[in-house]
Amino acid sequence: MASKSPLHLITLNSLVLLVLFLLALTFLAESHTHSLTNGTFSIREASVQDLQTAFKQKKLTSRELVQFYLGEIRRLNPSLKAVIEVNPDALSQADTADRQRREHGWSELHGIPVLLKDIIGTKDMLNTTAGSFALLGTVVRRDAGTVAKLREAGAIILGKASLSEWSNFRSFNAPSGWSARGGQGKVVIYTPRTGVQEVAKVKMF
Fold first, then answer.
1. What is the pLDDT of residue 13?
2. Among candidates 155, 176, 151, which has minimal Cα distance to 16?
3. What is the pLDDT of residue 84?
4. Which among 77, 54, 42 is positioned nearest to 158, based on CA atoms?
5. Domains of the chain with bracketed CATH
6. What span, in angstroms and rounded, lies between the C-alpha atoms of 175 and 90?
7. How confident is the model at residue 14 (pLDDT cuts 50, 70, 90)?
8. In this structure, which long-range contacts are made by residues 37-44, counting pairs with CB atoms below 8 Å and at least 24 apart in sequence?
9. I need a labelling partner for 65 at 20 to 30 A (CA). Which of 98, 99, 112, 192 fits?
10. Is the dihedral of CA 159, 164, 21, 151 positive or negative?
11. 67 and 75 in contact (C-beta within 8 Å)?
């Protein structure tokens, strides 16, 4: 049987990490709801479609959504160490999205904040370092293709998510989920039987 490529493993583990981080926000944070005409919804449990509905009904703005996530990162990240840095332009991008919302034809990602792994290049005020201080302050020549498409769709680049330094190619002995910039990453896992449990280390690339 053919083995999976390193790129496939990096992509899969990046997705798993981001899903687990969003679950952490869902089950650890305090309740935060906005009223809709057909009831209420929790930002933590809302789908992208739910958020877009809230935007259209003027129950939520992209600025409010970004402020909410930035607050959750400030509150939870000292323990989880899942986010390496946040984008200083995130609120400005949110304000732009709120102004643009008067127009029609935007994609479902318009005004939605997203986190990118710190191996995905962004030509902005964010660093792209693979978790290493060796690349801190370097400037990429252009946005990665994925980032260019996200910007074109109107998504807000919220920040850079942590990873194993150099995507775990740094050393055979380096602990998984650790990077010099981000520290040792942690996640929480929720099950109905045991509730919220913190996992000291997480396998991530």
1. 55
2. 176
3. 97
4. 77
5. 6-199 (3.90.1300.10)
6. 31
7. low
8. 43/68
9. 192
10. positive
11. no
The per-residue pLDDT for 45 is 81
Q: What span, in angstroms and rounded, lies between the C-alpha atoms of 25 and 74?
A: 11
Contact 88, 125 (CB under 8 A): yes
Mean pLDDT rounded to a whole number for the chain: 81
Q: Is the pLDDT of residue 31 over 90?
A: no
pTM assigned to the model: 0.75
Give me the mean pLDDT over the 120-142 stretch: 95
CB 158 within 8 A of CB 66: yes
